Amino acid sequence: MKLYKGTGEHADLFRMGAATFAAILLVALFAFTQPVDQRRHNALLSYLGELQSDEARLGESVLELNFSLSNNYDSVNAIIDRMRKILRVLQEGKADKNLSKDAEFQQQLHLLEQRLSLQSDVLEQFKSSNAVLKNSLIYLPHARDELERGLSAGTVMHEQIDDLVEQVLLIRIKGGLANHDDFDAAFTKVQMGTPFLPADNRQKLDQLMSHIRNIDAITMDMPNLVRQLSSNPEIAEVAETYRNYYDKQQRLAATFRAFLLLTTLALLAYVIQVLIRLRQQANQLKLAASVFATSSDGITITDPQGNILEVNPAFQVVTGYFREEVLGKNPRIFQSGRQNQQFYAKMWKAIKENGQWQGEIWNRRKNGMEYPEWLTITAVKDMNGIVTNYVGVFSDITESKAAENEIKNLAFYDPLSGLPNRRLLLDRLNHALASSTRSGREGALLFIDLDNFKTINDTLGHHIGDQLLLQVAQRLQSCVREGDTVARLGGDEFVVMLEDLSEHSFEAAEQTEAVGEKILASLNQQYILADHKYHNTPSIGVTLFNNHQQSIDELLKQADIAMYQAKKSGRNALRFFDPQMQEAINARAVLESELRKAIETQQFQLYYQIQVDSMDRPLGAEALIRWIHPEKGVLSPAQFIPLAEDTGLIKPIGHWVINTACTQLKKWEQDELTCDLALSVNVSANQFHQSDFAAQVQTAMQHHAINPKLLKLELTESMLLDNINDTITTMSALKEAGIRFSLDDFGTGYSSLQYLKRLPIHQLKIDRSFVRDISTDSSDKTIVSTIIAMAQSLNLGVIAEGVESEDQRQFLMNCGCTHYQGYLFGKPVPIEQFEVILEKG
Question: Is the predicted pLDDT of residue 7 greater than 60, yes or no?
Answer without folding.
Answer: no
